[in-house]
Amino acid sequence: MKLSDVPQIKYTDSNNFFLLSGPCAIEGEDMALRIAEKIVSITDDLKIPYVFKGSFKKANRSRIDSFTGIGDEKALKILKKVSDTFNIPTVTDIHEISDAAMAAEYVDVLQIPAFLVRQTDLLVAAAETGKVINLKKGQFMSPEAMKHAVQKVKDSGNDKAWITDRGTMFGYQDMIVDFRGIPTMREYAPTVLDVTHSLQQPNQSSGVTGGRPDMIETIARAGIVNNVDGLFIETHFDPANAKSDGANMLHLDHLEGLLSHLVAIRKTITAF
């Protein structure tokens, strides 16, 4: 697929990587608009094609008392308001077959969570909406196995698919990115590196996922050097009090510096 297939996306001729970024979960309208406004300003300055990311609900939680959302329709309407306010595309993840058509009314890209990317009926339902489908590589899957997920989308009549690598399980409580998989997956579809989820430390005894946000720039730089098409970075103005995945999110104040460095690296490697 071409990046220009995404509605409202800008700077597709800038030769930059594209960016999926925003909070892990939609916690409310004010926070979503505040984060989007900041990222739009940064990506406009750097000419980075940008898609706002926010989960309308969180179905995969460690504990039953973990935050799952503010209400499906309420959160989806906030995503639509972000899109309309800033004239940008949006992406959210879906978890059930019934989510596909519902979310497609509000967003431009449907994301399949890593734990669900082998669920054929879910992929077919997502594909049949005609939206761009972002397939997150399962932590338990090889890069080569993702060709089958992409093929399911294509066989459902939709050729608009991305792959996103979010790390591979390395023991019970750590993730690792195998950069050998990037060129492999790029043979099947444009490939995104999910920087922040790759730094999760899941399965903590507390039931709250940990993370290594101090390593965000290290992983992001390596992704750019290895020619990823896009980056996925969750960010928040108050990660310590975010309702989901705060331990591995980037503080919003650090995003501009990080992206500036990455754009410079991108220009350097594309000069050869």
From TrEMBL:
It holds the Pfam family DAHP_synth_1. GO terms for cellular component: cytoplasm. Its EC number is 2.5.1.55. The keyword Membrane does not apply. GO terms for molecular function: 3-deoxy-8-phosphooctulonate synthase activity. GO terms for biological process: lipopolysaccharide biosynthetic process. It is an enzyme of class 2 (transferase). Its main location: cytoplasm. It is found in: Cytoplasm. Keywords: Cytoplasm, Transferase. This is 3-deoxy-8-phosphooctulonate synthase. The lineage of its organism: Bacteria, Pseudomonadati, Bacteroidota, Flavobacteriia, Flavobacteriales.
